[in-house]
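User: quick one, fold this
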Amino acid sequence: MFLPFLYDYTPSPPLGLLWVFYKYLNLCAKHGWPMVANEEYFRNPSEYAGMGMLAASDAGFAERLGYTLPSDEDIRRVRPYVMPGAALDRCAEQTGSYCDAAVYLSGREYPPMVEEITRLLKRVQKESGEPVEAIFSWRNFPSLARAARKLKIPVIYNELGPLRRPTYAYTAYLDFQGNIGRAQSGARYRDFLRELRRDAVPVFDNRTLLSILLEPDSRELLSHYENAPRYRLGIAAAPRGDYILAAYGYQCDDEMLLWGKKRFPASDILYRGRPGGSCELAYDVPKDDSRSTVEFITQCESVAMLRSNLGYETMLWGRRPIEFDVSPFDTGCAKKNGAGSENWNCDVNYLNFIAFGYLIPYEKMLDVDYLRWRLRGPSETEIYRENLRFYCKLRKVPEEELLQKQILTNGKM
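Assistant:
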């Protein structure tokens, strides 16, 4: 059995991952599997639908995210487990506040929390009468990772991938080490390159990759690929007040803007804010009002970001991503202390590996057969071919036709 673990230890408003819980619930209700989450998640969905919560009431919202609206009966089909909470209270007391505890727990192991989780996992397995094949987690949680290692249970870290509808085919993360800066992507890419020496796979240039990954209704965006940049630097706003990201450092938009203004005139910087967000330091730079990230990226020579999904999309469109901290795409990103754009060149093998090797089709995220296959440890090239086959079927393109578009390259664009 697979065990979702959606324990939110932050003082953020509850139910921030309600749609994720319901997506996992679709799977667990079908099998009668247990789930671990905050107590609020196990209330009847009809209550939340009555409050107008999209995750519980909007069928279109649910369809876009790949789940069906659950019934109250679905909640009764799973075995609910709730964390006791004593370890969180103790951590808050020792760190000074629940906010500090949230930052601490996002970045470090906390022995009382490890013990609390270990006891809970043992109880789940004992009461279920079967072993946990893997745990689903939607965030880095070092104490969970330690408890799972003690019991020899793999943790599968999920998240929405960097490419999303309506512009792209939906992608997802599936990582056995973590997300953000703890991801396996760099090490797995090195393994992929070693395997390529004896087991070649088809590799495509940027335009072909985009033609596969873009949704049919968005393919007119390919015309932006040759756009001449209007700005030397784009800045993609980072989330503010995120306890999980704060565990990695305290940089924010201010850092990127200060860095950019030391190098370029304000008029050469394009700032793309987040919905409902603002940054006072951006008062004198042009603001992006593009409908899509594609239009934003292709207006810029380089794009600065902070722990962002945007790094991979920026590479796909042939622009230079500058990552100010850590991300799953570190291997392909320039750093803020790096050289100019003329010295950055993305490895086309890397672009293809991320598309078909590291990221997975969103539809595969909770595909039990696919997950069990991944747990058996297929090679990197086997994973690549399996995911590429999925996209061939999705786009209704015969593999043989797509193979005619592959390129022979030493990996440099």
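User: anything notable?
Assistant: Residues 408-413 have pLDDT under 50 and may be disordered.
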